[in-house]
């Protein structure tokens, strides 16, 4: 079988080649050709525009992550299956738990140096910090990531509110509420974690009004997609201290070849109450092992004519 890995994930071609064996040809491509059919058995990539999707002549497009919003599904031929892959929920949940704990422990208050000269003053001026225990965290989006976050937050004695489209009850949170009640929830939470998919229903879901409802002591964590939160509203709200702090791991602009861009049109990264990270919450060596093992298994299932896992498009 011919497999083409395109774009950001091209450097992982050797990893997939080792999993599949010599009977499969795995090619690494920086990008698609500007014209002509895109011919392969499998294409792996996380960004396929409409014009490229129309030219696909392959049996399977595999997204090497969970989000498929950059795949023009409507233009992908119906005979081409599209699948995604998870495995990122554990490291993202750990990243989020760290953010929640750091916010309460206020680690930035601690002295950078603790030697003989600094010890006496540091000891005399020891700052107090808060506790995660008993705090309330709202989790917007309660899929795989949200559930993993809830388990860890509850282990620390935090109270979890799950915000979903339906508000259907479950057993991993103290409350399950529909997204229609978001404005009522925000004034009473100590932290809001955004981990929902980006689609027409969630784009710009959190705007100036929602941010203004959060307290000056609250924390906002975004590990979903930046566009769930209105960009300008976020910058202005953080300038005004509502919410009090933010941990942002996802961004409004991403690097393009030969076209340097900042992560946002606004200097969010420069605000003193923002912890800015470069979309790293899920990136661990184990994650790549899990994801590529899953994709290799799906490719082998395709070769054997078996049903594919995590199929989101095409004839089932």
Ranges with pLDDT <50 over ≥5 residues?
none
Q: What structural category characterises the helix and strand content?
A: alpha/beta
CATH level 3 topology of the largest domain: Rossmann fold
Under CATH at level 1, the class of the largest domain stands as Alpha Beta
Strand order of the largest sheet: 10-9-8-11-12-13-14
State the helicity in percent bands: 25-40%
Q: What's the β-strand tally?
A: 15
Radius of gyration: 22 Å
Structural description of this entry:
The chain is of the alpha/beta class and 316 residues long. The protein has two domains: 2-87 and 285-313, NAD(P)-binding Rossmann-like Domain (Rossmann fold); 89-276, Rossmann fold, CATH 3.40.50.720. Helices cover 28% and strands 18% of the residues. The protein is built from nine helices and 15 strands. The strands form three sheets. Strands 10-9-8-11-12-13-14 form a seven-stranded parallel β-sheet, with helices on one face. It has a six-stranded mixed β-sheet with strand order 2-1-4-6-7-15, with helices on one face. It has a two-stranded parallel ribbon with strand order 3-5. The chain is globular. 34% of the residues are buried. The mean pLDDT is 95.
Comma- or semicolon-separated keywords:
seven-stranded parallel beta sheet, 2 domains, six-stranded mixed beta sheet, Rossmann fold, 15 strands, single chain, 316 residues, alpha/beta
């Amino acid at each position: 079988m011919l497999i083409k890995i395109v774009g950001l994930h091209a450097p992982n071609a050797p990893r997939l080649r080792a999993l599949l064996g010599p009977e499969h040809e795995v090619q690494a491509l920086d990008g698609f050709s500007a014209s002509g059919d895109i011919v392969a058995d499998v294409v792996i990539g996380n960004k396929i525009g409409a014009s490229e999707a129309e030219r696909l002549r392959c049996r399977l497009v595999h997204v090497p992550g969970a989000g498929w919003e950059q795949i023009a599904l409507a233009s992908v031929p119906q005979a081409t299956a599209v699948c995604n892959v998870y495995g990122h929920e554990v490291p993202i949940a750990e990243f989020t738990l760290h953010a929640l704990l750091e916010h309460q422990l206020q680690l930035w208050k601690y002295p950078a140096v603790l030697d003989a000269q600094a010890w006496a003053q540091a000891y005399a001026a020891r700052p107090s910090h808060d506790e995660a225990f008993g705090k309330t965290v709202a989790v917007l989006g309660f899929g795989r990531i949200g559930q993993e976050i809830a388990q860890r937050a509850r282990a620390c004695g935090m109270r979890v509110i799950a915000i979903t489209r339906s508000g259907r009850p479950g057993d991993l949170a103290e409350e399950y509420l529909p997204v229609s009640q978001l404005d009522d929830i925000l004034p009473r939470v100590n932290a809001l974690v955004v981990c929902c998919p980006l689609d027409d229903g969630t784009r710009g879901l959190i705007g100036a009004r929602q941010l203004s409802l959060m307290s000056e002591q609250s924390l906002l964590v975004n590990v979903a997609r930046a566009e769930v939160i209105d960009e300008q509203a976020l910058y202005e709200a953080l300038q005004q201290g509502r919410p009090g702090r933010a941990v942002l791991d996802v961004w409004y602009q991403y690097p393009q070849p030969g076209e340097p861009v900042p992560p946002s049109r606004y200097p969010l990264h420069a605000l003193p109450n923002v912890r800015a990270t470069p979309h790293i919450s899920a990136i661990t060596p184990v994650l790549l092992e899990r994801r590529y093992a899953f994709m290799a298994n799906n490719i082998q299932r395709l070769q054997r004519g078996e049903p594919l896992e995590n199929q989101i498009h095409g004839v089932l």
